[in-house]
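Lab notebook, design round three. We kept the backbone fixed and only want residue identities now. Task for the bench partner: fill in a sequence for the structure below.
Input structure tokens:
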């Protein structure tokens, strides 16, 4: 469908998605987001033929329902994620034609690997840059594999004998690697094997007995260093392709069993030390098409006989010792190559015809369309019934070296019949299909051009083409074993809604001319109305237009304690917003330190243009902040709304955020008692918002980066950018879009989108855990709530949390009240809001814990000089900077549902 751009992490929010097929959109680029692992119900993932790049994310191993995984024909690099081994239901794995490197992952201890995929039938890993050995552990007798395709890589070492244990195998393709050693003797146990391709490696030693492979169709052993007797293929009645060239077999004559292979179509045995005459009955095999015996020591007279195969196309005997040739009658359509033989020393005209013909690529004919007299529009193609239509086009690529006559129309007919059967089973509006243009790529894969024609109309609609691609990608089409597994690369298709055309232009021009006069008549009226509308819009978009400088005009809401600053004033206070005055930055913009004319320090939060909210929302936020006044809330000094600027002016808080102190950035050390007082101060600020503000306010973004420390290390809550007031009609909850910070988000709010005070309680509980562990809510993929919950054991000292707790709180002696503090934190992060305490109850519990330590909870912290040490002159991040993850929208379910 010509989709462009990247797949964003928001795809992970589609939690019920079962099928994702974006195949053949070549302009889709960028990495596959980690959030793909959140699609827990996904069973079908097909990204074939796009341009995705980067490593395959490890999170793909979280898709436990996945049956089909096709990432082939992209630009993925890096190692194959071992986590794929967790996909216990996977049937189809295709990573072919990428730039993957490293070894094939197998399980070790708790690390998964591909050997765990016992239900998977397809291992397609070819055309990459994989290296190392093929691990013996990869294969076992209880696997259901039918396809092992590791061709065109950099694999080395031996072929593991465990491969012979997988009795279900039909196709084994290890060609074009650097494998060495001997071929395992138990390969003959694979009684269901249809194709065995080991060519272009460094294999040595004798070839084992292959008599057990009675279903074998395709055998390729060429370009190795195999020795000993050539394997006897007697009884392989289905074998139609044999390539054993460029080896060192101990043979002296053309093997007599060759004439018993009644299905043989292609015989390739170049450079195999063959000697003696060529038996005439070899050419009598009824299906024989191609014979390649060049660069041997064959001699005597070439006699094709009179009963040669009617399908015979080519005989290559170049560079042998043939002395005579009996020309055949009626064999003009057979290409015979004799160059480099003694017979070419003869000068008769007939002999020279065959001696002067050089090796060339055999041309493959294509089924002809008998509608040559039919004239179709651009992009249209004649159907088999000679009617023009816009077909659905693509290339079917078969992952098998061709072993059949591409000019034989019966092959195309058989495939087309099976395709039609597939489309009918899906009840798709398909009239007919055609296959043409056979090509063999550098890796030996066969490609056929596919045209699928619509039924009853000349063009498919969106649903039709989507279902055709889905049916083919899902492997609903079952080609004969001769063709091997396949994949589809479809071309862009333009449906009726976007096809365009000259008729539209003509009609559009006529209608446009007829309307032009009418438009001129109404233009004046329209312009007048627009002018009035624009004037009203300007006034509406600037809700401060009627406010005077001192906020005192009648009927205008009073901003208690906050004033309106002009742009020029703030420019002056910050030395023209100089970099020297810049003290922080975030997604909204920058924060500057300023000094009022009175000498008071202020912090100015200046929004950048692309992050500014609407004027009315900005006004609402100012009105909200101007009404909250508490010693544990940062005070709003004022605002600026002019010259396309939005700025908030706060009191200046000197000692950074709680996050800065816990991480060591600020140089402030918080012992156990200081952390208790930080928790108490922040809790009291929230109690004021929930119970005393009018109307009550839910902060919605409580986190360690939004708790500031003043000069006495008292906690102050800041940043009310996404806070929500609770109106009288919303006493139980507010239904609103999910917003918050990753790791602190209330799972109940996330699931229901119903916000209440208990959502702040959950976030506060995460903050409490942060205070005792000094760990961020999410570190290295681990969620702090889950880590503490799993480690807790109330029968042991410190609840068995020694390894998790921050040593800086003083674990040498038992911190008084620590266990009660942990109990309170875990009550706050209960998944059900009804089980969580209120913030008022939280304050009382922290006060009790402080009293247990022999201190008065109502006494403020002492001066900074008496209560903490500052590490050198290290410059901390300013409290108003935003270096954490702010998030608005859906969250990973692993975080939202830690259980």
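Proposed sequence:
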């Amino acid at each position: 469908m010509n989709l462009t751009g990247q797949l964003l992490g928001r795809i992970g929010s589609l939690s019920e998605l079962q099928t994702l097929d974006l195949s053949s959109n070549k302009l889709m680029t960028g990495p596959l987001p980690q959030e793909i692992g959140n699609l827990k119900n996904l069973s079908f993932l097909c990204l074939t033929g796009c341009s995705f790049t980067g490593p395959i994310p490890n999170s793909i191993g979280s898709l436990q329902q996945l049956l089909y995984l096709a990432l082939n024909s992209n630009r993925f690099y890096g190692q194959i994620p071992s986590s794929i081994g967790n996909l216990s239901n996977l049937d189809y794995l295709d990573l072919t034609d990428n730039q993957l490197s490293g070894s094939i992952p197998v399980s070790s201890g708790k690390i998964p690997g591909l050997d765990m995929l016992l239900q998977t039938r397809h291992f397609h890993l070819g055309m990459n840059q994989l290296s190392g050995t093929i691990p013996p552990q990869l294969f076992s007798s209880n696997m259901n594999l039918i396809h092992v395709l590791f061709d065109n890589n950099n694999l080395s070492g031996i072929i593991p004998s465990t491969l012979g244990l997988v009795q279900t195998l039909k196709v084994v393709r290890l060609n074009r690697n650097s494998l060495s050693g001997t071929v395992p003797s138990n390969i003959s146990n694979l009684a269901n094997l249809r194709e065995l391709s080991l060519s272009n490696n460094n294999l040595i030693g004798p070839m084992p007995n292959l008599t057990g492979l009675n279903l074998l169709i395709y055998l390729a052993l060429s370009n190795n260093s195999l020795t000993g007797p050539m394997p006897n293929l007697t009884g392989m009645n289905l074998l139609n392709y044999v390539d054993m060239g460029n080896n060192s077999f101990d043979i002296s004559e053309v093997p007599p069993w060759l004439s018993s292979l009644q299905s043989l179509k292609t015989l390739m045995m170049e450079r195999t030390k063959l000697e003696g005459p060529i038996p005439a009955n070899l050419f009598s095999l009824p299906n024989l098409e191609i014979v390649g015996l060049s660069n041997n020591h064959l001699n005597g007279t070439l006699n094709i006989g009179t009963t040669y195969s009617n399908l015979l196309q080519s005989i290559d005997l170049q560079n042998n010792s043939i002395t005579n040739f009996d020309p055949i009658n009626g064999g003009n359509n057979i290409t015979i190559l004799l160059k480099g033989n003694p017979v070419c020393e003869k000068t008769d005209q007939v002999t020279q015809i065959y001696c002067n013909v050089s090796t060339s690529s055999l041309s493959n004919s294509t089924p002809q369309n008998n509608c040559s007299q039919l004239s179709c529009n651009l992009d249209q193609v004649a159907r088999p019934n000679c009617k023009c239509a816009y077909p659905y086009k693509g290339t079917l690529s078969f992952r098998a070296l061709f072993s059949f006559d591409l000019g034989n129309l019966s092959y195309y007919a058989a495939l087309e019949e099976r395709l039609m059967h597939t489309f009918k089973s899906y009840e798709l509006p398909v009239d007919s299909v055609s296959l043409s243009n056979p090509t063999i790529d550098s890796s030996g894969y066969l490609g056929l051009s596919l045209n699928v024609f619509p039924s009853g109309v000349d063009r498919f609609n969106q649903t039709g083409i989507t279902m055709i691609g889905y049916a083919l990608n899902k492997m609903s089409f079952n080609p004969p074993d001769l063709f091997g597994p396949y994949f589809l690369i479809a071309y862009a298709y333009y449906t009726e809604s976007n096809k365009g055309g000259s008729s539209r232009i003509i009609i559009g021009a006529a209608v446009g001319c007829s309307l032009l006069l009418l438009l001129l008549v109404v233009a004046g009226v329209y312009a007048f109305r627009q002018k009035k509308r624009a004037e009203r819009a300007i006034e509406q978009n600037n809700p401060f237009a009627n406010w005077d400088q001192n906020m005192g005009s009648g009927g205008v809401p009073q901003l208690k304690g906050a004033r309106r600053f002009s742009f020029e004033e703030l420019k002056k206070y910050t030395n023209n917003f100089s970099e020297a005055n810049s003290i922080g930055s975030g997604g909204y913009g920058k924060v500057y330190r300023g000094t009022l004319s009175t000498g008071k320090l202020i912090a100015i939060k200046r929004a950048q243009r692309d992050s500014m909210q609407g004027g009315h929302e900005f006004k609402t936020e100012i009105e909200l902040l101007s009404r909250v006044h508490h010693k544990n809330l940062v005070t709003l000094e004022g605002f600026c709304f002019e010259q396309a600027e939005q700025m908030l002016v706060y009191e200046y808080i000197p000692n950074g955020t709680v996050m800065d102190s816990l991480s060591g950035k600020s140089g402030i050390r918080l012992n156990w008692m200081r952390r208790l007082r930080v928790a108490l101060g922040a809790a009291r600020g929230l109690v004021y918002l929930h119970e005393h503000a009018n109307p009550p306010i839910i902060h919605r973004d409580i986190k360690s980066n939004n708790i500031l420390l003043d000069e006495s290390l008292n906690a102050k809550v800041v940043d009310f950018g996404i806070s929500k007031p609770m109106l009288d009609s919303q006493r139980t909850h507010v239904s609103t879009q999910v917003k918050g910070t990753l790791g602190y988000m209330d799972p109940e709010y996330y699931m229901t989108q119903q916000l209440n005070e208990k959502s702040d309680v959950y976030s506060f509980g995460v903050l409490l855990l942060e205070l005792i562990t000094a760990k961020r809510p999410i570190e290295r993929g681990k969620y702090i709530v889950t880590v503490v919950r799993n480690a807790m054991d109330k029968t042991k000292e410190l609840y068995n949390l020694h390894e998790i707790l921050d040593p800086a709180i003083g674990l040498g002696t038992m911190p008084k009240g620590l266990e009660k503090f942990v109990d309170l934190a875990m009550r706050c992060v209960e998944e059900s809001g009804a089980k969580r305490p209120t913030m008022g109850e939280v304050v009382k519990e922290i006060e009790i814990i402080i009293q247990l330590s022999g201190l008065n909870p109502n006494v403020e912290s002492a001066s900074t000089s008496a209560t903490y040490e500052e590490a050198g002159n290290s410059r901390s991040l300013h409290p108003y900077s935003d270096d954490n993850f702010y998030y608005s929208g859906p969250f990973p379910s692993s975080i939202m549902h830690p259980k």
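Keep this in mind before ordering anything: The first strand starts at residue 4 and ends at 6.
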